[in-house]
Protein 1
Amino acid sequence: MTADTKEARNQAIADLLAEARRRTLALVAPLDDEQRNRVYSPLLSPLAWDLGHIANFEELWLVQTVGGREPLHGELGRFYDAIENPRVTRGELPILRDEELRSYLEEVRERTLEVLGGLDLGPGQEDPLLRDGFVYEMLLAHELQHQETMLQLLQLVDGYELPLPIGTQPVSAAGPETIAVAAGSYEVGAPPEGFAYDNERPRHAVELGAFEIDRTPVTNAAYTEFMDATGAEPPDYWQRDGEGGWIDTARGRREPPAPDHPVVHVSWQQADAFARWSGKRLPTEFEWEAARERLDDVGQAWEWTSSDFLAYPGFEAFPYREYSEVFFGDEYKVLRGASWATHPRVARPSFRNWDLPQRRQIFAGIRCARDAG
Ligand code: AVJ
Ligand code: FE
């Protein structure tokens, strides 16, 4: 590798990090410090926690682990540990706030760029953390993923206007209703090269029976019909309008849910019940992945699958157990796709999101499937 290419690669990484940070700061720019520190929901961290956690994750991996340097604020990192500090406790922690928080983000970034300047992140690197810039890709993905978590909260802030194209679009109207997928062996998961999280690997073959999957996600109109027929609970943030209808209070609005938009903020149980009521079922995550290329409206809302969040055969935790491994088991359900709030860099076809089945704060909707024949 010539010095030129090495420098060009490091510059490209520095540019991506700068771009992600501009987006993070743009999202919270309309708020004041009080709003950044406020607890809006026990399911969502105060924004100041997410911001400090983003900087702390960067400090831990880039400055301390790769750069071998001491942290700026001693033991502070333990308050930004997502496993040690459940969301409901985060408003009470002695985390950095206001001016101290802004300085921390800046100072960590300065140090990160200093460390980056001396590194060779080429494909020939022996250290898997550095090879092909893995640790930087991870850092970038981490910040972008936390932007979505912050958007889950930002949409609840009164009067907040997003500095991004907002919300869902009508689902595609024309064409066949379902896509038929033949029985057979399908490759799933991320290939060995390129960035992916440990839980997406190794790529492997799965046997699928013939199935059909809906071409489009479930709309607000279809979900309302289901509620009327069964008395099912509404999605989160919907309230009665006093005349037998509904208003959606998310995203700073009080409007009837747009009938032709995908339903969001439903739990796994609501998604599963809807699918059964329609004479269908939720797809498995592998059915979803096998049909991915042929599905419409992927990327408007996460889609609940029937699959538990489990390790793929031959899974190896990398670079830390707490990203995926500690969540494996039958407690969490896998969501596939992406939402309107997901940065395109995050939304690989093999990307696995997960949450507790009862959770509704994520931008999660429904797509149904059924056995063919
Ligand atoms: C993949 C969204 C379940 O928020 O717990 C962020 C992403 N991991 N920081 C989560 C994540 C570490 C993760 N999800
Ligand atoms: Fe995180």
Note: The longest helix spans residues 3-28.
Protein 2
Amino acid sequence: MQKESIYGLTYEQLKDWLVESGQKRFRADQVWDWLYRKRVKSFSDMKNVNKETIQLLEDNYVVQTLKETIKQESKDGTIKFLFELEDGNYIETVLMRFDYGLSVCVTTQVGCNIGCSFCASGILRKNRDLSSGEIVEQIMNVQHHLDERGDQERVSHIVVMGIGEPFDNYNNTLDFLRIVNDQNGLSIGARHITVSTSGLVDKIYQFADENLQVNLALSLHAPNNDLRTQIMKINKAFPLEKLMPAIDYYLEKNNRRITFEYILLDDVNDHVEEANQLVDLLKDKRHLSYVNLIPYNPVADHPYERSRKKNILKFYETLLENGINCGVRVEQGSDIDAACGQLRSKQIEKAKRKKVNA
Ligand code: SAH
Ligand code: SF4
């Protein structure tokens, strides 16, 4: 049987397992500290932990399941990691540098079943969910990379915006959030973490009830059902009249600002008409809304183009004039395929070509 990643356990799970296996509770504190504070890469390096516990850990878990296959660093400091999973699948993780800190974008699934028409991840259907350990390991690999550089840098922010729909892998995503947020571990503040969803309504309600203080982003991309269904087929199952009440519920329960993501696609959803419709859709919650206008990253074989600068500006101004908080996302790492799914799809293309040529 393949051993699972130790990073998949929350502190509580680790403690319960060690105690059930006959070890003292404080061993859990020691192991947790070695994993997340001292950040060793093998159980045998946990110096003050007794031999029996180390053996138990080695018999049941591993510290590393991801294999780094490509690391690309961009001129602006963005680093893109491509990891191979134990089953041969690839995932990607991106480290971005901002004035406010270092943010990591994590992947939650191999592929994605939501199949949005503009997205590189959606072309390849979901192969499987990532385990909580595989999601945490992405952060740990990036942090180990920073540790090795010796500049005392820490991952301070996380965006769950890589490949996959986090709410389609809800429990593992939630365990991931608990693990990275743990005060005695990485201690990445809930307010520094953002989870992005395409709008799985029942899970938005569930997430609202967790009261986590984690930020929520909704990939809206269109202000009316016809257009939204055209570009995101998930809108058929969860149309705006179901989605917006779920957002209202989240706002009521959490009183935290929500981000609406809106990719601007040339001549599709970027007219002043849609900007005005968006104003109408959000006007009753504008004090708790922020619209993130995203310049589209063209994906091969997709029918869309990036909106023209003057249209992006007009859209932005229309929202602002009507009291909607908004901004245009600044691109990171455009010289290294840092956009969602791009490096992975290139790697898969390469593998396919190899097969054809073999
Ligand atoms: N599945 C989740 C999270 C991953 S996608 C979601 O859809 O929200 C993260 C963000 O990247 C989403 O807002 C998505 O719409 C956006 N995105 C996907 N493909 C893109 C592209 N080609 N250019 C710009 N943004 C893209
Ligand atoms: Fe999946 Fe998000 Fe891409 Fe849509 S945008 S296909 S939900 S990863």
Note: The radius of gyration is 21 Å.
